[in-house]
Write a sequence for this structure.
């Protein structure tokens, strides 16, 4: 099967809030000064610079065609598997999560069960979820992979999505030494320091503070890899029917959020239950 390969503390009260497409705050006055072109480069021209491990977005269509519910099972090495083999599940379809029909493509290959978090740096609820999802990632089953997909609801979100993939590929190349710390810094910069990161220049300064040279930043910001990843993210958001964030999609099959689960801690429990379900296929 072809797929895209990129590679707590305190219990909160029930969570029903999310950043929706309609309610996403418009860019502030200074955001209208964004001068950078966000247009995706022509795929035919960019293909010459393609890296070997990045596939064309057209693979999405092929992935959708070959993704079947009865794929070979991925057996998780979770301690609670003996309990999970029963039908006494804590969460219910239609109440706590929705099944995507047909099952949609994922970012990575079929060697692991994929948990995709769809987020925006400007979303306060995504910021709140960070502590929980990061703690979960440290302790997750080795047969599970976490990926993040930036949602694009407006012009500012488009720029922040480009920021995320620049961050991702600089981290992958080693130019960004601590991607996790940088991700925290971006959230902190936006939500606590009031830096809305509304221009390429403002974003570049953040990378420079993290030890990335201007040359490395500029080379990656407008790279084929980043532009291709943006196209794939937009396609997956459409396929997953993303209308609000944060949202979680498990293996292209189950969609949920903290409001449906009941709280952030419950969302983490639901993610674990859904990955166990997938492991028992």
């Amino acid at each position: 099967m072809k797929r895209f390969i990129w590679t707590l503390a305190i219990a909160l009260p029930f969570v029903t809030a999310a950043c929706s497409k309609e309610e996403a705050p418009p860019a502030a006055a200074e955001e209208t000064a964004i001068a950078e072109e966000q247009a995706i480069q022509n795929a035919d021209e960019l293909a010459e610079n393609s890296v070997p491990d990045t596939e064309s977005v057209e693979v999405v269509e092929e992935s959708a065609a070959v993704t079947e519910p009865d794929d070979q099972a991925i057996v998780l090495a979770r301690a609670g598997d003996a309990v999970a083999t029963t039908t006494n599940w804590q969460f219910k379809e239609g109440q706590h999560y929705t099944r995507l029909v047909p099952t949609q493509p994922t970012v990575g290959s079929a060697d692991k069960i994929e948990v995709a978090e769809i987020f925006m740096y400007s979303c306060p609820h995504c910021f709140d979820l960070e502590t929980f999802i990061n703690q979960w990632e440290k302790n997750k089953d080795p047969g599970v992979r976490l990926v993040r997909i930036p949602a694009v609801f407006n012009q500012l979100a488009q720029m922040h999505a480009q920021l995320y993939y620049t961050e991702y590929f600089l981290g992958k190349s080693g130019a960004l030494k601590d991607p996790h710390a940088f991700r925290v810094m971006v959230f902190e910069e936006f939500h606590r320091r009031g830096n809305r990161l509304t221009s390429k220049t403002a974003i570049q300064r953040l990378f420079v503070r993290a030890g990335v040279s201007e040359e490395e930043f500029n080379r990656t910001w407008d790279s084929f890899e980043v532009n291709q990843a943006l196209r794939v993210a937009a396609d997956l958001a459409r396929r997953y029917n993303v209308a609000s964030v944060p949202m979680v999609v498990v293996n292209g099959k189950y969609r949920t959020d903290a409001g449906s689960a009941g709280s952030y801690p419950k969302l983490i429990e639901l993610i674990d239950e859904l990955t166990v379900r997938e492991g028992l296929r």
